[in-house]
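Put briefly, the fold is written as integer tokens. The lines below illustrate.
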Amino acid sequence: MELNLKYHLYRPVDSLYIIAWTLCHMSICTSTLKSIVAESDHRQNRMIFKLAVEMAVMMNVVAANNNIDPVSLERLRGECVKEVKRLNGSFSFDDAVSWQKGWEENE
């Protein structure tokens, strides 16, 4: 007995089933990916919040132990913006020490 493959591959009922199955699985995949991204965002937001709290504590300790006038603070902020931009946001404590000591990058 010979099978008519053309008939089996293109029956309208099978095509509708395949389309429905595909749409259902696409919906499941989309929903799963949205959940993964939402959970990742939630974790990142929690970590950013914790870092902000630690930075606030650190800034208050530094401010309590130093007398910095508002003009110097504003000038320092502007210089820090320039330095962080120059380093593409990758500013470390070592960079701050070098900058405050006036050391050159090559030293």
Summary: The two ends are 86 Å apart (CA to CA). The mean pLDDT is 80.
